[in-house]
Design a protein that fits this description.
With 389 residues, the chain is of the alpha/beta class. The chain has helices at residues 41-51, 63-73, 80-101, 105-108, 131-144, 163-180, 196-206, 223-232, 246-255, 271-283, 296-308, 325-328, 354-358, and strands spanning 3-12, 17-25, 30-34, 116-122, 148-151, 185-189, 213-215, 237-239, 260-261, 315-318, 334-336, 339-341, 387-388. It is built from 13 helices and 13 strands. The strands form three sheets. The chain has a five-stranded mixed beta sheet with strand order 10-4-12-11-13, covered by helices on one side. The protein has a five-stranded parallel beta sheet with strand order 5-6-7-8-9.
Length: 389
Amino acid sequence: MRIAAVETHICHCYRANWVFVRVLTDEGLHGVGEATLEMREPTAAAAVHELERHLIGRDPHDIEAIWHECYRDSYWRGGPVLMTALSGVEMALWDLKGKALGVPVWQLLGGRCRDRVPCYANGWFSPAKTPDEFAEKARIAVGQGFRGLKWDPFGKAYRTVTKAELRQAVACVQAVVEAVGDEVNILVEGHGRFDVPTAVRIAHALDDFDIGWFEEPIVPDHPEGMAEVVRRSRVPIAGGERLYSRWDARTYLEQGCADILQPDVSHVGGIGELKKIAAMAETYSRPVCPHNPIGPVANAATLHLAACVPNFWLLETMNTDVPWRRDVTTEQVRFAEGCMRIPDGPGLGLDLNLDAIAAHPYERRNLRHYTGALTEIRPPDAVDWFVKE
């Protein structure tokens, strides 16, 4: 069996666009991956096709060799564009291998540590603006079965925060905590907004709420600053979604930049790379909670990692999505008691519906994080996309 072609298919999904990858073989078998690079999706798709020259004619089972040569021969190694493209191709190769052998990907990676993984919800808050609106949305998400909630309560603050902005953010956290009770994990997102003294000030203000973590509190390009916030904060600090390889992760771990590591399977080079990063994190006694607010193939890949990574803690997921998410793949994610079940079908356990994807072509979207419009990330007709048990 040899690789015959590589395809990309871009699907608009309101907040951004999913970039799906298909690796086709001369025997008719194919694998699917995801190379979504939010707000730069056509760039990622073009980068996937740049890698095609290294793939045609290769044995798709040789995943490690193909990955290494694509990385080596790009010369300008690392960064979000190459690593996202490589992630999508690598995911598709694992999916293809699993389908060819008739086993789930987690079986190829060493077998299961667990058959389900606890989840926390992102996106549950849309389109809330006030503390009372956040509280009501939180009650709805907990009613769906989620036992963890993450959100960014900081509006359009950037670098620093005024006293009024901090009071508003703290009031929002307090309203959510009071709405859902002590048993729900409260996770506060920073989106790389703040400078070090502001991040420390906010972390101290959050200490009263027993939160699970304060995520990416400062600009992610400053690992020494992240490490300083970790040292000075009494609440756990999470970060790492903007790491693009095991070499980036090594710096994070060696310098103590985060208590919880959050690499993204769509951006660090794929399934094998994230598993290596997780093993590195385990040697530093750090849990991994991968960044995962993207599409159905990335979610499937992250679930397979959740199955076989001992120090995997929580799975990020959106609690609702565009109505056509149900149409664009054969995804069937089962959700019960705050956990998603690990799929056990061959490969990643899903396939693409190309006609449904084509019905939702690419639309340009800009980043909302610092404009005050961050909570408008779900459409008014958003729906549950998982199967409740």
